[in-house]
Amino acid sequence: MNKINRLMCSLVIIGTALLLSGCWSKKELTDLAIVAALGIDKNEEGRYVGTLQIINPGNVAGGMQGGGGTQGPPVSVITGTGDSIVELSRRTSRKLSRRLYYAHTNLVVISEELAKEESISSILDPLERDAEFRSTAIIVIAQGEKASDIVKILTLIDKIPANKVIKTLKFTERTWGENISVSMQEAIKTLVSPGKELAVSGFRISGDVDKGKKMENTQQTEPSSLLYTGSLAIFKKGKLIAWIDGETARGSVFLLDKLNASAIAVKWERKDEAMVYELIRQKTKVMAKMEKGKPIVSIKVQAEGNIGEARVPIDLTNPDVLLKVEKVIEKEIKKEITMAVKQAQKNRSDIFGFGEALHRTNPKEWKKIAAKWNDIYFPEVKIDIVVDAFIRRTGLRNNPHQVNK
Amino acid sequence: MEKAKISLYQLFVLILLFELGSAILVPLAIDAKQDAWLAILSGLIGGLFLFWINYRLFLYYPELAPPEYMQKLLGKIAGTFLAFWYIIFFMYTAARVLRDFGEMLLTFAYLETPLFIVNALLMLVIIYAVSKGIEVVARTGELFFVSIYFLAITGFILIVFSGLIDLNNLKPMLEEGIFPIAKVAFTQTLYFPFGESIVFSMIFPYITKRKSVKKVGLFAIGLSGINLAITMAINIGVLGVDLASRSQFPLLSTIQSIQVAEFLERLDVFFMISMVICIFFKVSIYFYAAVAIAAVIFKIKKPSKLTYPMGMVVLFMSVTIASSYAEHLKEGLEFGTRYVHPFFLVIIPMLLLGIAFIKNRKRSSHQKI
């Protein structure tokens, strides 16, 4: 009995040692090529070209201490061609000494040309299906550029270009509000919805692309080539149809209720851009209803903010004056939103989700008009905008200083 | 029947872990679209009724396990035959749940590992636990219950704070009227997961305070139903109907979307741990019920001897019942809930209760005279 017990005991120990090590499909860190960004183009033959931005671990870490390994670029780029995304990704293994690892990919760049030619949903399927790839990855469109170029440019401050793109988008969304960062999951949700069309930010390159690929690009105060956010790409049925920018874009972001903060310049006493309103927070509510068979959308905006700049003599200590300024600001916001809606109606693409709002309130009528929503009903939608803007504070000073000479 | 004592709290914990088991894994009741949570709650009402039927049967024969009162009610041969079918049903369902577990791990984490290995690892643990008896399983349940709820509450808070839930996704309510919800409730959620609580009739005789079985059981099933409805509502709120129905594991996709404060993200492991725990209990309880019935009808004194051979059968069945995950799911929905579940979970218990009612009324009226 004792012998059997001892035998069993040793068997159990050997068994657990084998099982607990969990080495069935082990992946050593030194065998992984961590993909930071994926750029997708289409070549002349109509095949997909994928450009993968792979992190060079040695050149990213320890740069600040002046330690070794800062000689080379922080990322290197590899391209693959194929008829499908999975094929091109697998084919890059012929050029790469490591296994591609997509779990940290948080940027997908799609070229403008490709997005105009075919629905981007065919690109997104393999990315959504893969267990490694994260659906929180951000999507951008390479505006007027090749996606491969966007992925290749080296950047300052944030060493990994993919991070630079994502952070730029995030901060401009928070402080200026003409762009939005859209994750893959959000994009797919919008693509499948009959009552909403997709809007995604574009990214552009300034300067010489070839210089941007070299390390010298990061060794000057003003890089020869820089990545910056472009306009807002408007989609219809998954295809890119138009770009919008400026106040129209901001009006669209307002309507999407994604605006966090911005600076709105208004006219005061015949001087253009005399006052700047610093928006701190806003809430936009979209309600839709049917009246006599026609959809009506009412938009309610509540904005809160401070005075950031006053370049004309004005008595900001007087609450009545502030109320007047609020009225002007409300007019300006209303103008931007109206511009955005008119533009979208011209494009016949409901990027604001008015259709979804109608679906929620009038499911039965929506069913009848859903198929023709974008082309027939949406361009005819009557909108009714109510803006409530509040000026809460005026900064450290009340009245602007005046030069009395 | 082994000698074991189960407290009311242990029963509560076991029912809850069992009900959450694989139901929280799959897109439950998604055929009802944005009203999935309503379909779950309506299924719950039916499930409570089914639990009550089993409880009434237990009240007639508080000392006997189901196979024994089946023999008493239907006669020796017919009762044994029926009990034998229950062994097969419970083992088949245990194999299905085990397959769910393996498929989940293979789809998402261990893409290159064979299904057999993953299933075998869990099944070995289950065989060991069940061979030690139901008391051990119950005590393990007490231990893990706390961690499950800790994970669930943490996950819930994180989802709420990451601002992902868009309640607009749950509108419009009752878009197609009440009919689709009723259909889903009566063809799916009534049986899976709520009707499955019939296995607990194997455990009732062990419970120390019999008077409170009804109260605790109904409460546990009710709570699990509410948890499932909330989970599904959150899934749809975060993912939208389309994505939730296309996701093999919607809860996983929901958890993967969490991004709080730049560092609280990629919490997939929350999902993995809770799934492994819940599925462990679901398979264990099904498997225990199969073993216990076999021990009764074949008059085996030590049920633990049966665990290894029967466990191997469950393990091999789990690998061979379907050649793909799609086939596995289709089999569950088209064959399982349409033909198998109504028979074993609804018709038979109702029939038994009817016979028990008539027999006992006769006896009690005789006694009065």
UniProtKB/TrEMBL annotation, chain A:
It comes from Neobacillus niacini. The keyword Disulfide bond does not apply. It comes from the Bacteria. Residues 232-395 form the Spore germination GerAC-like C-terminal domain. GO terms for biological process: spore germination. One of its GO terms (cellular component) is membrane. Belongs to the GerABKC lipoprotein family. The lineage of its organism: Bacteria, Bacillati, Bacillota, Bacilli, Bacillales. This is Spore germination protein KC. It is found in: Membrane. NCBIfam families: spore_ger_x_C (TIGR02887). Residues 26-200 form the Spore germination protein N-terminal domain. It is a lipid-anchor. Keywords: Germination, Lipoprotein, Membrane, Palmitate, Signal. Its main location: membrane. It holds the Pfam family Spore_GerAC_N.
From TrEMBL, chain B:
The keyword Transport applies. Keywords: Germination, Membrane, Transmembrane, Transmembrane helix, Transport. Its main location: membrane. InterPro entries: Spore_GerAB (IPR004761). GO terms for cellular component: membrane. It comes from the Bacteria. The chain crosses the membrane at residues 7-30, 36-61, 73-95, 107-131, 143-165, 185-204, 216-241, 269-298, 310-327, 339-358. PANTHER family: SPORE GERMINATION PROTEIN A2 (PTHR34975). This is Spore germination protein KB. The lineage of its organism: Bacteria, Bacillati, Bacillota, Bacilli, Bacillales.
